[in-house]
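cron nightly-structures :: item 1 of 1
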Amino acid sequence: MKAVCIISGGMDSALAAFIAKKNGNDIIALHFNYGQRTQKKELECFHKIADALGAKKVVLDTFFIKEIGSSSLTDASLDIRTSGLKNDVPNTYVPYRNGIFISIAASLAEKEGAQNLYLGVMEEDSSGYPDCTEAFIKKIETAVNEGTKQETNIKIHTPLIHMTKADIVKEALLLNVPLEFTWSCYKNEDMACGVCDSCRLRLRGFKNANMHDKIPYMQE
């Protein structure tokens, strides 16, 4: 079996890819450069994770996402929230990013003859992004298979969808995922800020799992 695994460089997508490997898939690791603030660091982490998986690598530029705008991840004129986690959709949400990524990944999967597509989305302990829900994934899987060849049958796997960050940390350690190779910070590429939503979620996950995060932080 083959699986296309969308790997951002973060710990969620890294774990999802390691689960795909555990399930007997040859891995095609797919990464997107889209003008995000930490693009260089994320790409560096992607290569380390893909190498650890022994995966075939595909890196694609999708800079039109940055041109669309409206996200603080791609627009430096917008401030990334550091005031704490809230029950809303923050401005780090990139409009329909997962929909775009899944569509491209499906195209690659069809070309490669891959039956599976893995991504690390989660809805129970995330930032509330609307394209990270189980309902969305089910619907886009239907659309993918409706819009590809009749003999193409792609299953979208989201093994983390109902996990918490603490669950992810624990499972990653069981599968020997090199979490020190992953990056979550929205703001910085050298030392993680420790205060953006993504850093807070990551740190909370390690704390709740009673584990220490090996990556460097400006503050914890």
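cron nightly-structures :: done
Strands lie at 2-6, 26-33, 56-61, 116-118, 155-157.
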